[in-house]
Amino acid sequence: MARTIGSHGPKTMEAIRKAGLRLIFEHGYAAMSLRQLAAEVGIQSGSLYNHISTKQELLFELIRDHINELLRQLDRALQGQERPADKLRAFTAFHVSYHMTRKREVFIANSELRSLEPKNYEEIVALRGAYERRLAEILSQGVAEGEFEVVDVQVATFAILALLTGLTTWYRPGGRLTKEAIVAAHEKLVLSSVAPGTTPNQAQAKRPLSRSAATSAKPERR
Amino acid sequence: MARTIGSHGPKTMEAIRKAGLRLIFEHGYAAMSLRQLAAEVGIQSGSLYNHISTKQELLFELIRDHINELLRQLDRALQGQERPADKLRAFTAFHVSYHMTRKREVFIANSELRSLEPKNYEEIVALRGAYERRLAEILSQGVAEGEFEVVDVQVATFAILALLTGLTTWYRPGGRLTKEAIVAAHEKLVLSSVAPGTTPNQAQAKRPLSRSAATSAKPERR
Amino acid sequence: MARTIGSHGPKTMEAIRKAGLRLIFEHGYAAMSLRQLAAEVGIQSGSLYNHISTKQELLFELIRDHINELLRQLDRALQGQERPADKLRAFTAFHVSYHMTRKREVFIANSELRSLEPKNYEEIVALRGAYERRLAEILSQGVAEGEFEVVDVQVATFAILALLTGLTTWYRPGGRLTKEAIVAAHEKLVLSSVAPGTTPNQAQAKRPLSRSAATSAKPERR
Amino acid sequence: MARTIGSHGPKTMEAIRKAGLRLIFEHGYAAMSLRQLAAEVGIQSGSLYNHISTKQELLFELIRDHINELLRQLDRALQGQERPADKLRAFTAFHVSYHMTRKREVFIANSELRSLEPKNYEEIVALRGAYERRLAEILSQGVAEGEFEVVDVQVATFAILALLTGLTTWYRPGGRLTKEAIVAAHEKLVLSSVAPGTTPNQAQAKRPLSRSAATSAKPERR
DNA sequence: GATGAATGAGCTTTCATTCAT
DNA sequence: GATGAATGAAAGCTCATTCAT
């Protein structure tokens, strides 16, 4: 990939983002050196600075742009859905599909938050919170309407997101299953997981879950 | 100067492991410097080498010891369970409980596999495969006995593991929920997720899933 | 900060080689630190790596380039000489002269072979063998034509080379003797040493010296 | 060799000297680590300090003891010889024989002088000077009596010593030649080298060689 | 006399970043 | 916009040496 010697202009920036995405995905932000990145792009490491301001900024922009796009597309995917189950199915289908085509962006946005400097971290976490809230609200609505049953909405939100995002660790194009099959498999799991039924045993929260606590607790960086 | 009075060998090793666990959990393996680690332990960085052979070896042993312990305890937790639902509940309860007390080990064992050198990586992935296989077999049995319904056992295995392991990214002792509540919340989600019901739409695998492909595919490092 | 004005690439490389030569000559390869070398050149130690790839590579190239040059010039010096005595005189004069102007290179090429990694060592020893073979052949020819008398050609070859190369341990420009006097002194010693005469006492080799054994024995790294 | 676990007392000291000799011979003083040495002896590196005071002191004593022994034995070997040729033959035979049985000591005493700290260096060089002077005096006497002819006594002294000492770089027991043959080969070379004959071309010293200049010049460390 | 664990300095090498050209 | 050469800090690791046990 890349390495088109002499590439310049916006093409170079694009190559940097692409290569950066791949290298961070494979080795992690801290383990990726700008020399590696530059070599991948086919330029000297000093030349990177004609396009990026710092390594940190590159990471930040990759993540921020990704989450913004994710949010934009999620809202489009949810449009027109009214009933909680439909919303949840749409959410799941969108999430899985998106993760299959952008697995590197998604993976990095989840795994490299700790590599962000505080200011950047805050900004990204706020955006991520918006995404999580979409799901939390779907679940809350479903519970309120009696369509869903969960022990705890907050836990269910995190669990379902983890379930769906786990995809990025094993999915690869051209595998055994079609994309549709993978989407279907996840829809089944997610929709069933919150379906009403015999709850194993009744557990109590130590404290009631206030609306804000549900999403803004942030006890530590995660 | 020689050794500070009162600091002993095994105690130092234990301090190194503990601090290493914390630092890798917080910053990642690549971003943790041995100087940091040594400072945390209260010795010079060169002194670490009286206890570890390399940074890589430290990571490897932390992960390997963790997975071995995990496997050992899992098998004990599953003892005596016969029906798939009971097994799955036991698996879930054990997994969640264990992850709450050893969240750093668990997190690292999942996130730092890519930091392992090939030989070490192979060894850990083999161990991890054993763990995954326990769950895959529970699901298979449940499906065969008509107790569970999943679109694809392999996908369900990965998804459920991801769901459960996601816990490590947000759990912290002293939070809003009791441990029991957290376990219960996950039991509900997991048991429901594979419960028979209306599968959204029928999807087909491109290829049938052979037994071995299910667990040994390893298309790329994950 | 960036580069100091006026310091250029090739000039820096040349300064590194020159300073490296001197430091290795004075302290030995293992005892020379790259910090020392960099300080000598007037740059930071990390900056060395814009010019060399490793410390080992620097040593290797210094030695290899030297031996290649030595061989090239030797062959020129021997051109036109027919009789063994003339060849031997030419060899001696060339060797001594060259060693007086390049004593550091010569010394290092002899004393630091053990510091070379196996692959580099093999390459250099092969080149050195070519040089030794020139002298061995001159002696053989002289013995065959009855002009020289030696107890053993192989021993004589090594001994004469050692005699000549010893120069590097004491020669310094501006000493008591002119270069010409030093050359003459060595010519006398070398030519006399193989002159026919009364051999002290007749000694026997345990085994006859095969042609190949003479030059390829290499019992151990030397 | 060595590694007799639990060896103690004078036996350990002897093992240290033996192993040190070998390691310095093979890798050089700077490149030999005390950990290596200790491992060879079968103890921990800290334990070395029950026997040596510093690494430098070990080197110094190895060299000093060697040269003292060399001088002692040389004087015994020269006893009873009157005529310069007989003395030179005896010197050569002794030197070669001794170098064959103690090649490591000899090699180190020549190659590691630069690794000695100034004070130690001075002491060793003084001893070495005594050894060189024996040969210089033999040559001077021979020249004075008309038995030898050399262009310059000083140069001849250094050259003959280099010739003889070169042995340590290639000799190994069990090689093609008997010890006697090797001695004979060197006797022929050395005695012939100073034999009167047609001096190639008459060269002049820039300055006459004063008695003291011949041996105490020491223009630089060599 | 040996050990094991420590020190503090030092090693070679890599890093992100800068900037004259 | 790219290069090549620089910086200064820091990396993982090794070193000779010390000393309580």
Automatic annotation (TrEMBL), chains A, B, C, D:
The lineage of its organism: Bacteria, Pseudomonadati, Pseudomonadota, Alphaproteobacteria, Hyphomicrobiales. It comes from the Bacteria. The keyword Transcription applies. This is TetR family transcriptional regulator. Residues 195-222 are annotated as: Disordered. GO terms for molecular function: DNA-binding transcription factor activity; transcription cis-regulatory region binding. Residues 195-204 have a biased composition (Polar residues). It comes from Bradyrhizobium valentinum. Keywords: DNA-binding, Transcription, Transcription regulation. Residues 33-52 bind DNA. Residues 10-70 form the HTH tetR-type domain. InterPro entries: Homeodomain-like_sf, HTH-type_TetR-like_transc_reg, HTH_TetR, KstR2_TetR_C, Tet_transcr_reg_TetR-rel_C_sf. The keyword Transcription applies.
